[in-house]
């Protein structure tokens, strides 16, 4: 549990560093995270999960998004391609967190995408 919490904290620090060191970093990282989340969902939907997850399970904390959660996060939004980047970010940021999201946080290597995007929005306002 400590390692998982540390991994989530490390992701928040990495987000903050990117937001402040790259010009317009908060917006750029938000869009990249949203697109990565959607891309991981498509990969899992195409049955690449059997190839991706077992062989790289040990490396899951090093990925930009948790492939195990990407599908459920995007499915709740029913997000399909064709949206501009800023709309994907807004849909993910405005998503209401459910009890299952809060419980999954305990067992996740990455912060919930909605919480990450909300934090990046706060950093943009600094």
Please tell me about this protein's structure.
The longest helix is centred in the N-terminal third of the chain and has 21 residues, at 25-45. It is globular, with a radius of gyration of 14 Å. The chain is built from 7 helices and no strands. With 126 residues, the protein is an all-alpha fold. It has helices spanning 2-21, 25-45, 49-56, 67-77, 85-94, 99-106, 113-124. The termini are far apart. The chain has one domain. Helix 2 crosses helix 5.
Short characterization:
This protein has 126 residues and is an all-alpha fold.
Summing up helix and strand content along with how strands pair, one would put the structural category as: mainly alpha
Terminal residue distance: 31 Å
Strand content: under 5%
Please bin the fraction of helical residues: over 70%
Based on Cα principal axes, name the global outline. Answer: globular
The major β-sheet equals: none
Stretches where pLDDT is under 50 for at least 5 consecutive residues are: none
Number of contiguous helices: 7
Summed over residues and divided by their number, the pLDDT gives a mean of: 78
Number of strands: 0
How many domains? The number is 1
- Rg result: 14 Å
User: Which sequence of SSEs, written as H and E, runs from N to C?
Assistant: HHHHHHH
């Amino acid at each position: 549990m400590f390692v998982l919490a540390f991994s989530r904290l490390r992701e928040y620090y990495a987000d903050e560093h990117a937001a402040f060191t790259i010009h317009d970093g908060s917006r750029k990282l938000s869009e990249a995270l949203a697109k990565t989340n959607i891309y991981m969902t498509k990969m899992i939907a195409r049955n690449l999960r059997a190839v991706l997850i077992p062989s790289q399970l040990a490396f899951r904390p090093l990925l930009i998004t948790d492939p195990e959660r990407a599908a459920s996060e995007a499915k709740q939004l029913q997000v399909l391609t064709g949206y501009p980047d800023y709309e994907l970010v807004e849909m993910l940021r405005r998503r209401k967190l459910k009890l299952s999201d809060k419980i999954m946080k305990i067992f996740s290597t990455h912060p919930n995408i909605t919480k990450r995007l909300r934090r990046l929005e706060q950093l943009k306002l600094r």
